[in-house]
Write the structure tokens for this entry.
Amino acid sequence: MTAQVLPPAQGRFHEDLGIWIRIAPRAGAATCAALFLDRDGVIVEDTGYLSDPSDVALIPGAAEIILAANQAGVPVVVITNQAGIARGYFGWEQALTVQEALDRKLAASGAFLDGFLACPYHREGLPPWYHPEHPARKPRPGMLFAAAQLMHLSLRDSWIVGDKLDDLLAGYNAGLRGALHVLTGHGLAERPSVVAWNPPRFEIRLGNTIAEAAELLNHQNRVHPNHIRNQP
């Protein structure tokens, strides 16, 4: 199945994958590495079940890193669990309004997201969003697998940035090259678990904020010279 290409913060819900997906248009189909990012606590301040666009506040360095990836031809893909939808705290309309606010803030710095994937399922979710272990909800890798298929991404060369161990586990379970764990969001509380984890063939880097992802961009595969992405 292929995702519809729609304007920023829209997209559609894929029933078979259990994921809301928005893919920005880009030319060509060259396979390349990506920079996967958790959203709340990594790109924006985690206010707890973020649903009000007026509460969207970029974490310092986030827009700059995303812009640097844009300029380097590295696709930037947000993968986010949305338990607030599962618990009935808000619906898709509110969730997408928040995403639109994020898009506008990034655009003010000339940056943009290539992909946005959100999983609403939770083991304590209300119908229809209850699922004991949905394959798309982090730490499971379903969102990363979907992005790789729909966007022609090389997972083994890609990195993920997260504030929770579950973000890193999703990257590991998807076969990514490695991850950057940051101290923003839930990062401080999660850091001991991250440090204690010693996975094989998966590089873990420790940082303070997403700003330290700049070094990761130096490890990404360069896109084909003829592979030019269009801004959404």
Summary: Residues 18-81+93-118+137-217 form a domain with the Rossmann fold fold (CATH 3.40.50.1000). Residues 92-107 form the longest helix (16 residues).
